Structure prediction request, 700 residues.
Amino acid sequence: MAQLNRNLAVSAWIEPVAPERVVTSKPETTAELGDLWRILFRRWKLILGTASVLGLAALAYAVLTPSLYTATAQLLIDPRDRVVVNNDVNPGALSPDGGVTQVESQVRVIESDTVLSRAIAETGLDKDPEFGAACTGIVGRAVRSVREMIAGPQPDKVVDARGQSLDRLRRKLAVKRADKVFVVDVIVTTTDPDKSARIVNAIAKSYLSDQTEARAEGAKRASGELRARLDDLRNAVNQADLRLEDYKAKNGLIASSGRLVGEQQLTDSNARVVAARTRTAEARARLQGVKDARGRPFAAGATPEAIQSSVIDRLRGQYAELASKEADLRTNLGERHPFIAATRAQMQDVKQLIDGELGRIAQAAESEYQRAQANERTLTADLEKLQKQSAVSAQSSIRLRELERDVDASRTVYNNFLVRSRELKEQTGIDSTNARVITWARPPADASWPPRLFLVLAASLAGLGLGTGFALVREYAEPTVLSQRQLERLSNAPVVATLPRLRRRSDGASASAAGFTLDHLHESTDGGRSISILVTSGEADDADRKAVIDLLASVAVARGERVLIVDADMRIDDSSVGGLLDVLRGEQSLNAVTRLDPATGARRMGMGDAQKPVRDAFLRTNVERFLAGVKGRYELVILDGGVLSENLRIGPVAAAADRLLLIVRNGATRQRDLLSLVGTSEALGRPVSGSLLLDARAAS
Prediction:
């Protein structure tokens, strides 16, 4: 239904020129939420067109693009190497960051030229057209022929097939590691599922082989470097030995069993002196014991240790037997018995023998003691002599010990290098790498690219968004009238009615709105006086303006009013038919230039001959006299002012008209054109009296 402004005051038409008018000079680039939907609805063709173009492009891409298949293998890389030997050339401890840096470094190793080149050689990718090899088939020859036809013959270039394959493989390869794990995913995408799996597995094998060879090569290189140093170290040891032996020879420092002869002699002499002193002390103690035992009776079992002798023991045994016998005889026979005297005589003889034996033992002990003293003195003299010689050679020993330490240090370093070299040589055959493949790649069953349905839907949605952006950008660059309130703000005049865009003149809603407008027009006159109204619009609204004029005229005629439509648009050439200019010049009469319009039932007057000078014709007095004359014969005079901003020569007509009516199409009339019309009307002295807003939504 057409929306009529029932609250519109008639005074707005009676007194259209206010003492103070606020005219907006700049377009409004802001819009309400409802206006945004209106913008999108009005530019639906642009939005849907953009979505269709992107959707079709995505569909073409999805159809023409060959399917890609992605294969994945997983490697577990433990930063802690296997400890096969204690002195491994590679450290086995974790770094402070938990080994993440080591694993990330291994990710770069997998992407290195060394590993990828090994995989290329294993899978023969340098002969695969997908990886840069020349196409030898019919299609490849045809493409080269077309290229030569377009660009001309190309000079032969040396093509690095391995380098091209390497570059293309790197573009198809992705090596990723998830957070907090040591598992590395090796991903390859090609047009063949079997090829993808084969390449991924080849890269995994190449990485493991490269790590094994790298560690073996590191051990071999370290062993070689150590062996290269062994000759120098061996020479250094020999030189140190030579210096030591030369010094010993020059200073008479003869060694035996690792020790100097002088030191050995001094040690041995000191030991002999100590032993001699011990023997002397023992001989003196024995001699004293013998001396103490002489002349002292003692039993056979109480013989001192110093005079232990088998003869003494036997004699003492005899003496003891005689003493026992003498005691028995004394008891049985008495003191004076001859047997007792004989026994006592025998005892005296044994005692003398004992004393004689003790004297001999004492003499032997004395001789032994004297020999021990003489031996001690001789050894002591030799020791003192050796001590004096040792004191003399002490200064030479300082340098000797220094040379010996030098020899020991050189020999120790040489031995360590020799042992380490042998260890590293044996480690070349030991793989301590702690990496393994936990998931081998399998040929994928489904293609990973392109996701056709997703691409089409995503492109269509992106097209809708992009089209919406284009629509809003175009609206921002060229803002249009979006609502009734905005139109009132821009034109500084009320909107009389909102009616649908005119297509059928018999439209009831449009006729109702036109009748409402005519009611206000007639109410604004004094005593039913005729009224003249100038209708103008933007250039894009020419058809709507003419349709509104015809609608107003037909409704007024249907109500029994006499209506005159005057085409005052200077852009129209009516030189073949008389019209307004001819009447203003006085060349023709009003009746001669008016004709009946069968579509509306009103009388219509054209512009007339615009080729002749129009300056005198548009004199204000002529225009006012003309309007006064036609208003005497017609109740409603509708002047089609065209685009007033481009039809400035009819300014006197606009100034003499009773009202100025704007025709604006909601969402289509540019604000720039509207402001130009408003400014022109202000400059001509006839401000806009009201507007008719054409809105397609009003039809609903």
